[in-house]
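Collaborator request, handled under Task 6.
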Amino acid sequence: MRLKRVGRFGTTGALVAAALGASIVFTPSSASAVSEWKCYGTQVKRCATVWWDEAADTYRARAKITDVAGGGSYQVKVTNVKLLRFNGSENVTVRAAADTDGWHATEDWAGTTAVNPCDWDQSFSVVATFSWRGAASGEKTWSPNTGWSHMCD
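Structure tokens returned to the collaborator:
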């Protein structure tokens, strides 16, 4: 089953997103693996996205954390990555990855296994836990205020 972008859904999605205070990302159909990373942080950059592989028609949650050069020399890790779907009233976990490979000197990546988004026909989001230690330490569970959606044939 192939995914396709549908303008009518975009209007509806935008209205729902505006009501929820979120944005919805529509992925262009010309890409083979598409990701629009949403990031924050200055000394330690934390990023997350719902990754779409057009060739396989699948979604997966991905997260990364990076010690920014010149920012303070932190060890970093990302754990507990979840692909969520919005079922109309709440977010439900579709896939999760603990990613317990430990601390890394400058960057860590983690991701869930893939799902067929046509099994649900709803919007998806990502959440992960980001940790850092060095000059200061911290941990934050964060999700970009963004939903990713496609309509299926």
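The cover message to the collaborator said: "The first strand starts at residue 3 and ends at 4. The longest helix spans residues 7-20. Please let us know whether this matches your experimental observations."
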